[in-house]
Amino acid sequence: MLDEVLNIVSRMHPAFWIGYWFIVGAFVGSFLNVVVYRLPRNCLSINNPRRSFCPSCKTQLKWNDNIPIVGYVLLRGKCRYCKAPYGARYPLVELLTALLFAFACWRAFYADGLNLSGSPLAWLTLLHMTCVIGVLLPWALIDLDLTYIPDKLTFGPLLVFVPFAAHADAFAAYLPSSISPLWFAFEPRWLNSLLSNVCTGVAAALVLWLIGKGATLLFRKKAEAIGGQAMGGADVKLMILLGVMLGWPKLVAGFFIAILVGACFGIVQLLRGKGSGTPFGPYLATGAVVSMLATGWLVDFWNWYQRLLESLVS
Ligand SMILES: [Zn+2]
Questions:
Q1: What is the DSSP letter of 88?
Q2: Which of 203, 183, 204 is nearest to 194 (CA)?
Q3: In terms of Cα–Cα distance, which of 229, 230, 236 is closest to 209?
Q4: DSSP state of 119
Q5: Predicted local confidence at residue 277, as pLDDT
């Protein structure tokens, strides 16, 4: 029965599945907007009121105003009732989530010229990727808004990612170009895989905590001026989650991407004469998502770089 279903699924045109996940992503993005708005405001619950309301006049929105991206375009970014403008961030978050989901689908099913859409492992990988995006995107946005992250948003998702972490080795093995996340060499594989990811998270948190301590000692005056440590406690906790989510190869790559992106934005902000008060968390989240989605290319780049070094040495 399952084989027949997977057989039909694998014969669908790639555009069908990529388009399907684009639409799913747009709706998830719409939900993430609600999470970002309501979660830090403790008086508001995620599912009550059920329908979205205008943040300005509190009128409940019609169902067709709620259609992701399309609703915003039809209303030209204004409330139907009080004409208060909605931020462009709402449709942008929906569009970004849609694009990331569509790309994750391509990555899991069709990268490297393959068609893996009939493989249950590919579906689990895609589910894992969309969960990572669905957790890290609101995490980054709330951190940008408030530079404060409720602990439930860091430690709650751990429960979701522990079962995935137990299969991280299998996920890595089915894609042609990736590196195994295993730290140890014992059986059973699932326990090995789980332990490797947990150790990665704890070790990464420790490293970031030490970097933060060092930076605070070095730049004590500057740190006091911006009010606290150079590296927030939320970033350290995020590292535990990222380790369990991704395993060490993607986490290390993501960390370096985060520093690169952070440095670029920091230089732009300095040139515009603004202080660099941006928290590091959003960069970490960005680096993690990029390294997860671009693993194959990063491995290719790493191999090319090693060959380059070897040719220079010899
Ligand atoms: Zn309104």
A1: T
A2: 183
A3: 236
A4: -
A5: 63
Per-residue confidence (pLDDT) for residue 238, from 0 to 100:
93
CB 150: neighbour CB atoms within 10 A?
15
Q: Judge residue 199's burial from the number of C-beta atoms within 10 Å of its C-beta, 0-12 exposed, 13-18 middle, 19 or more buried.
A: middle
How big is the chain, counted in residues?
Answer: 314
pLDDT score of 174: 74
Name the residue type at position 106. W
Helix (H) or strand (E) holding 233: helix 233-246
- pTM summary value: 0.90
Question: What's the pLDDT at 63?
Answer: 84
Cα of 243 from ligand 1 centre, angstroms: 42
Question: What type of residue is 87?
Answer: G
**% of the chain exceeding 70 in pLDDT:** 92
Both tokens of 254, joined, read 């993501």
Bridge partners (DSSP) of residue 53 are 60
Collapsed DSSP state (helix, strand, coil) of residue 78:
strand
Dist. CA 57 → ligand 1 center (Å): 4
CA 197 to chain centre: 17
**Do 185 and 226 meet the contact criterion of CB atoms below 8 Å apart?**
no
CA of 61 relative to ligand 1 center, distance in Å: 9
pLDDT value, residue 103: 96
What distance in angstroms lies between residue 84's CA and the mean position of ligand 1's atoms? 6
Residue type at position 311: S
Q: Find the 223 Cα to ligand 1 centroid distance in Å.
A: 41
| Stretches in the chain below the pLDDT threshold 70 | 43-44, 46-48, 176, 221-232, 274-278
Mean pLDDT, the chain, as a whole number? Answer: 87
H or E element that contains 259: helix 248-271
Q: How many CA atoms lie within 13 A of 30 on its CB side?
A: 19
pLDDT at 29: 96
Separation of first and last alpha carbons in the chain: 57
Alpha carbon 16 to its chain centroid, in Å, reads 24
Q: What is the pLDDT of residues 144-166, one digit of tens each?
A: 888 778 888 888 899 999 999 99
